Amino acid sequence: MNKQTMQQAATAFPIYSKKSTAERAEFLERIASEIEALGDTLIQTAMAESNLPEARLLGERGRTANQLRLFANLVREGSWVEAVIDSAQPERIPPRPDLRKMLNPLGPVVVFGASNFPLAFSTAGGDTASALAAGCTVVIKGHPGHPKTSALVFSAMQAAIAACGMPEHTIQHVESTDFAIGKALVQDPHTKAVGFTGSFGGGMALVDYARERKQPIPVFAEMGSINPVILLPEILSTQPEALAKQLAASFTLGMGQFCTKPGLILAQDCEALDVFLRTIGHEVPALPTMPMLHAGIHAAFQKNLNTALEQPGLGVLGKTEKEVTGIEPTATIALVDGETFLANPKLHEEVFGPYALVVKCQSKIQIAQILEHLEGQLTLTFMATEADALANADLVELGQATAGRVIFNGVPTGVEVVASMQHGGPYPATTDSRFTSVGSDGIKRWARPICYQNYPAALLPMELQDNNPLGIWRWVDGQFIK
User: Fold this and answer.
1) Which of 62, 124, 360, 402 lies deepest, with the highest CB count within 10 Å?
2) % of the chain residues with pLDDT over 90
């Protein structure tokens, strides 16, 4: 079945990739409209399968449609292909040939749906939308945590294929709980790239499958992080209670099931930190709980939480006090000193769910040591006044080396779908920190540059023709012009 699926994707690719930018843009917009037309049926189905509340899923559906339309606008505008022209210089010694370059779609892409965002990071999520925008055909490996939701979304995509006259196998959907199916999709010779959002173990398994191929391919895996938050002295001294309440609400938001959940809080020991600790320890037990996405995630959370709490030197500041039932988690905030944290790599690992660890540091130097020892992160946050930021510019620079997104005075869980967003960081947060899985630049994962030397004018892509029929911005003989 998988060989046939990937063969069909490969057959559809040269047809779909040659569709005009206007046709691809209209196709993406039609997918968005068809998803919206599913109405309450989609929301109720997703609620039943994911335990997520209606308001959250309504917002996620809006994000799913909006990012499809974002990529439609990107394709229409056209400059994302990075067209470059260096005109021939026949009089030069030696003569320079005519050289033109642009990004071209890779080919069939396999996308693995994520469990924690059943709409925005799943079947028609950002990976799929950006790959289609680039001109790639897509095979979606549906997540087993929400099969009915995925099937509904795929039906909307099929309707868009028919309405827009796209090749039948532009998008395909595979449902299976067998890991062997995922391996076969990655290792099929027709597959040219892979998109994944999930656990470190899952992402690295896909990377290993790709490395075993005769022709290795890129795996763009976003695998999460602990997203450190640093409380700098001046803001902590004036706002300890407010910071505690803000962070308590953030790390338990959605039962902590965000890859950008703040899971580590660093601060120097002081009286204000004591106030912060008392406040956050009081806040967490009073916060409401709800079931996690599915039993597997709940079991993994409990296992990883127990492992963390068993580590020497760790103390619990506060945890859910009401009796939890079913797959409701016990939200927990813990405390450890900086020396113990530095000495124990187990404390540096992500616990996916409503858990965060406060590290009481003895000095700014110790905070810097911790940042240097941490692995790559998606985000790093500074809570700081302007004076704090200026006095700790060295820590800010360390933050830039550690994470893909550096934040001041805000929680990291909000991820805007815009051109300036970077949702990707140094390994092991992602497999390639040069790329993002959120925002316009996500399209660049699914394309590669081709240089056209002394090409016949009639065969050049429209983006590289002299008269610039698409009217896109291009870098021509050292100038960025239309």
Assistant:
1) 124
2) 98
Q: Report pLDDT for 355.
A: 98
Q: Which helix (H) or strand (E) holds 316?
A: strand 315-319
Average pLDDT over residues 60-82: 98
Query: What is the average pLDDT score of the chain?
Result: 97
- Reported as half-sphere exposure (CB side, CA atoms, 13 A), residue 388 has a value of 18
Helix (H, G, I), strand (E, B) or coil at 220: strand
Q: Which of 392, 336, 399 is nearest to 362 (CA)?
A: 336
Q: Write the DSSP symbol of residue 420.
A: T
- Using alpha carbons only, what angle is made at residue 440 by residues 436 and 442, rounded to the nearest 5 degrees? 35
CA–CA separation, 219 and 196 (whole Å): 8
- Residue range 58-73: mean pLDDT, rounded: 98
Tell me what pLDDT residue 194 has.
Answer: 98
CB count within 10 Å of CB 386 equals 10
Give the residue from 320, 316, 353, 321 showing the smallest Cα distance to 333: 316
Q: Read off the pLDDT of each residue in 362-387 and give the average, rounded to a whole number.
A: 97
Residue of 29, 60, 259, 361 marked catalytic: 259
pLDDT category of residue 1 using cuts at 50, 70 and 90: low
Structure tokens at 301: 């959370």
**Cα–Cα dist 92/85, whole Å:** 17
Helix axes 179-187, 200-212, angle to 10 degrees: 40
* 259 flagged as catalytic: yes
Residue 222 pLDDT: 96
Contacts for 467 with CB less than 8 Å, ≥ 6 apart: none
Tell me the two tokens of residue 269: 């020991």
| Plot region of 173 (φ>0 → left; ψ -120 to 50 → alpha; else → beta) | beta
Determine what percent of the chain is predicted with pLDDT higher than 70. 100
Distance CA 400, CA 10 (A): 40
Catalytic hit among 222, 328, 350, 463: 222
Which secondary structure element, helix H or strand E, spans residue 449, and what is its range?
strand 447-453
Span 264-271, mean pLDDT? Answer: 98
Judge whether residue 327 has pLDDT over 70. Answer: yes
Q: How far is CA 329 from CA 37, 200, 292, 296, 352, in A?
A: 34, 21, 7, 12, 11
